Amino acid sequence: MAATVLIVEDEPAIQELIAYNLQQAGHAVLQAENAERALELVKDALPDLVLLDWMLPGASGIELARRLRGDKRTKAIPIIMLTARSDEQDKLAGLETGADDYITKPFSPRELNARIKAVLRRRAPESTDDLVEIGGLQLDPVSHRVTTGSQPVVLGPTEFRLLHFFMTHPERVHSRTQLLDQVWGDHVFVEERTVDVHIRRLRKALEPAAQDHLVQTVRGAGYRFSEH
Ligand code: CA
Predict the structure, then answer these.
(1) Spatial strand order in the sheet of 151-153
(2) pTM: predicted TM-score of the whole model, two decimal places
(3) Is the model's pLDDT at 89 over the cut of 80?
(4) Helix 12-24 vs helix 109-123: crossing angle, to nearest 10
(5) How far does the centroid of ligand 1 lie from the alpha carbon of residue 155, in Å?
(6) Ligand 1 centre and the CA of 54: distance in Å?
(7) pLDDT band at 76 (very low <50, low <70, confident <90, very high)
(8) Secondary structure class of 222 (helix, strand, coil)
(9) Domain boundaries, the chain
(10) C-alpha angle with apex 41: 37 to 43, nearest 5 degrees?
(11) Which of 15, 115, 136, 212 could share a disulfide with 9, CB 3.0–4.6 Å?
(12) Which of 56, 45, 50 lies closest to 68, judged by CA?
């Protein structure tokens, strides 16, 4: 499962180069040349990660990072700052604003990809291609396959996304609203009971393998994926 990466960079050549490299690495790319355009794009759909140039015309990268962190809807988006300066002071300021990581230009595509992967693994594990395994259940985002032992589990696309999110965020209670935001997308208008319908389908699909107990109802709170 590829991540959607928003690149905010005012130098067209660098923006294109980064976009090309990320697409080669299998990511979907959104491009903005300034903070204002970036905010417009974020309004439409939340990216999985923002690559943010420090020096932008108009509002700076730091200001944009602050705005993203200050808004409930966008505060959890992972941010990697890009800068031409390797000043330690800048680095601290960037991290204090809430950036997850920091890369100094010029950087190699390989370094950038490694950093992106590390941040996503930490902050948004459901958008990486890593195979996940919990309680005898194995989910492979690359082949879109779920197996238990050697038996395949057949899931619809929504149940697959739901299970992927659960397996990458186990042992936590997720409310229906949180699941809608994370699995359906935050601007999608879906009733909360839709979540219950897909939970039921997911449990049903896990039943033959006796793994439906992994999807637990937490009364008055939501759902939890747990092997305990
Ligand atoms: Ca710049």
Answers:
(1) 132-134, 137-140, 145-148, 151-153
(2) 0.77
(3) no
(4) 70
(5) 45
(6) 6
(7) confident
(8) strand
(9) 4-127, 132-225
(10) 115
(11) 15
(12) 50
